Amino acid sequence: MPQKNTESALSPEDAARLEAFEAHVGKGGYVEPKDWMPERYRKQLIRMMSQHAHSEVVGMLPEGNWITRAPSLRRKMVLLAKVQDEAGHGLYIYCGTETLGVDREELVEALLAGKAKYSSIFNYPTLTWADIGAIGWLVDGAAIVNQTMLAKASYGPYARAMIRICKEENFHKRQGYEIMATLSKGTPAQKAMAQDALDRWWWPSLMMFGPSDTNSPNSAELIKWGVKKKTNDELRQRFVDLTVPQAEAIGLTLPDPDLRYDEETKHWNFGEIDWDEFWTVVKGNGPCNKERLEARRRAHDDGAWVRAAAEAYAAKRNGHNRATAA
Amino acid sequence: MTQGDHPVGDTQWPLWEVFTQSAPGKPHEHAGSVHAPDAELALQNARDVYTRRGEAVSLWVVPADAITASSPSDAGPFFEPGNDKAYRHPQFYKVPRGVKVF
Q1: ipTM for the complex?
Q2: Which residue among A164, A311, A318 places its CB closest to the CB of B9?
Q3: Number of Cα atoms under 13 Å in the Cβ half of residue A56
Q4: Could you read off the pLDDT of B27-79 as tens digits, one per residue?
Q5: Which of A267, A278, B47, B83 has its CA 20 to 30 A from that of A304?
Q6: A176: helix, strand or coil
Q7: Distance from CA of residue A109 to its chain's centroid?
Q8: Cα separation, A179 vs A86, whole angstroms
């Protein structure tokens, strides 16, 4: 493992600190921003948290696509509130990431320059209204499984952001499931639309948990340091086990002929994920990668005048305050 | 990065720490932080980011660089004066058997 080399290059003082750090997080201890931490821990968290924050922000785009076409005022209000929550979640996590010594500005620049990663799920298109249901139910559902684990992460600011987010995501999941349940009780065309959305979103949702444990380079280290408490495959299994009965309850079929309940393990076995598709989208060649980044850049540029106006106003007021004080 | 590298309106605004009071009578607790060019916008941003579900009846925003914090590396000696005075706790005192003090 690469850490071995770094360890041997550590000063005796740092080696002792590392040992104390690992013993502390090994016992489930928390790490706060000003505590000593291995450089690699800091880097891994900046990578993970900034990707998470970017995902919240880019995640607004596929759903934002349907705000103007929501089928009722109720659905429109709900979707607006959900998309606004995602913006808030991005801000909670950027704020947590900044405690590690990076500026949000640097992170946003990396995203806009196409140098940062975000969850691949948002590189799929939202073709029908049912996709909004599928996203809330499956994408937010998968995110809750992941984030419930991260609410116990060893890095305090990350854990606290996750607790706040988990509380809010429950509404996201339920509103999505409600859309799917309503459609599947509707006309045959509406039910078919729900099934079609489920067919398209199911596998990408399973991919959200990342590569399988046999092919996940960061997992062991993140688990050792208490950032993650469960492996990608364990989380994926939990999501499948939760979702199968939910699909059944609303009369929809998960698009996996290999789905079987295993009496012995008490888990649902599922078919092989298309890892070629996973890596294609991660590497930037998914259906909407370009479109998403372009939309982010456009939003950033179009908002420049708002930022400039706020700054000019603050500068003017500061000048005014100084003048009256003098 | 200097301000000159950026187009107008693209610089990082100052950081404000946000404290929320969840109900009357409760203390203000740290909720997170926001960036804002001035106190008024910091307050509005904090409202939008941290109180979308009635989480607060009162908000404080404080410029992050105005906060002085204790240092974790000195936490041992720094908090020592409070740790070695068992006589500040009621359990330190013996009470005759069967007597209710409170």
Answers
A1: 0.86
A2: A311
A3: 27
A4: 999 999 999 999 999 999 999 999 999 989 999 999 999 999 998 888 888 99
A5: B47
A6: helix
A7: 19
A8: 19
Are residues B49 and A85, on separate chains, in Cβ contact within 8 Å? no
A100: which 2 tokens?
């590690």
Cα nearest neighbour of B3 on chain A: A105
Interface test with B, best of A14, A35, A311, A317 (most B CBs within 10 A): A311
Return the SS3 of B75.
helix
CB contact under 8 A, B10 and A310: no
The stretch A169-185 carries a mean pLDDT of 96
Tell me A31's DSSP state.
B
What does the pLDDT average to over A3-27? 81
- pLDDT score, position B4: 41
pLDDT digits (tens, 9 = 90+) for A287-305: 999 999 999 999 999 999 9
B15-21/A267-269 β-pairing: unpaired
Nearest residue on chain B to A31, alpha-carbon basis:
B72
- A316 backbone φψ class: left, alpha, beta (φ>0; ψ -120 to 50): alpha
Give which of A297, A296, A292, A252 is closest to A125, Cα–Cα: A292
Q: Which residue has the tokens 């785009």?
A: A61
Q: CA A95, CA A103: separation in Å to the nearest integer?
A: 9
Q: Give the integer Cα–Cα distance in Å for A229 and A28.
A: 10
CA B73 from centroid of its chain's CA atoms: 20
Q: Mind listing the domains of chain B with CATH numbers?
A: 12-67 (3.10.20.520)
- 3 state SS of A286: coil
* Long-range residue pairs from A291-296, CB within 8 A, at least 24 positions apart, any chain: A292/A58, A292/A61, A292/A122, A292/A123, A293/A112, A293/A114, A295/A61, A296/A57, A296/A58, A296/A61, A296/A111, A296/A112
Tell me phi and psi for residue A113, to 5 degrees: -80, 0
| Interface residue ranges in chain A relative to chain B, Cβ cutoff 8 Å | 32, 34-36, 81, 84-85, 88, 91-92, 95-96, 98, 103-106, 160-161, 164, 168, 304-311, 313-314, 317-318
Q: Which residues of B touch A105 (CB under 8 A)?
A: 1, 11-12
DSSP string computed for A105-162: HHHHHHHHTT-S---GGGGS---STHHHHHIIIIIHHHHHHHHHHHTT-SBHHHHHHH
Inter-axis angle of helices A140-150 and A188-207, nearest 10: 30
